[in-house]
Amino acid sequence: MSGLSDHARYRSVLTQPGLPVDDALAACDAITDRDLRGDCALSAVTAPGRDDIAGRCPAVPRGVWREECYFIAAERVNRQGDAVLAAGLCQQAGRFSLDCAQHLWQTPVHQLIFSKGTAGFAHALPAAEQLYAAWAPVLASETDFETRFWEKYFGNGFEGQGRPIDLSACDGVPAPRRDACRDAGAAYFYREIGPAADQAGEMDVLCALKAPDAAALARWLPAAPDPLLDQTAAMRVAELCASPPP
User: Fold this and answer.
1) Structure pTM?
2) Which of 239, 241, 242, 192 is nearest to 220 (CA)?
């Protein structure tokens, strides 16, 4: 491949998925552009059908490319049923390690509660506790698993339920998880405030509110009265409507 441009070498790897991995890596190594070389090596190692991705990740340049390689390797190993190895690979994913860990369990959590909505919180909770217990031993000590897991479980329920947002759905949740439920509902409310007002083309109206509590936001984002949602509304409107720095 002598005389080829960097982009031509890169395309030669991407368009030959059956190219032996060592040959693909050699072609990538001849690329002079650092970013293109890293992306090429990542593509060479993680192409569909490749075996032992994790074992090949050290051949990928350090930085974002090698970290993403371990992320991809963890997802594939997890699909093969090896949760312990997948969790260990996530620990090598650097800046992606926390998101990598979440990817290992977020799909079954979503399947467990999203379609049921908030009405399914208490009924589905035993299954969620089993899923939590399965992943906690391999993720809790090294990641923010504890917080993310319950925020995702309850947050998926609120998202599945849609509007109005009603934190009383948490009343039937056993006390050890009730605060996590309410916090997840408030987090969902927080995320939706800006998009709801912006979609209506009324960000200026939002920012003109004198007392932005949950009731004042009902024209864009209906919610049942709750002090936590009132606090969330005031905080989020203040953030959204803060004057830009000079």
Assistant:
1) 0.84
2) 192
Segment 37-85, tens digit of pLDDT: 999 999 999 988 887 899 999 999 999 999 999 999 999 999 998 999 9
Please give the torsion angle defined by the CA atoms of residues 26, 32, 34 and 38, in that order, rounded to the nearest 10 degrees. Answer: -20
Backbone CA torsion sign across 197, 199, 201, 203? positive
Q: What angle do CA 108, 112, 114 make, to 5 degrees?
A: 110
Residue 25 makes CB contacts below 8 A (sequence gap 6+) with: 41, 44, 45, 59
Instruction: Tell me which long-range contacts 174-183 makes (C-beta under 8 A, separation of at least 24).
Output: 174/122, 174/125, 177/125, 177/150, 180/150, 180/151, 180/154, 181/121, 181/150, 181/154, 182/228, 183/151, 183/154
Report the alpha-carbon distance of residue 66 to residue 75 in Å, rounded: 14
CB-CB contact of 162 with 192 (8 Å)? no
Side-chain-side CA neighbours of residue 32 (13 Å): 5
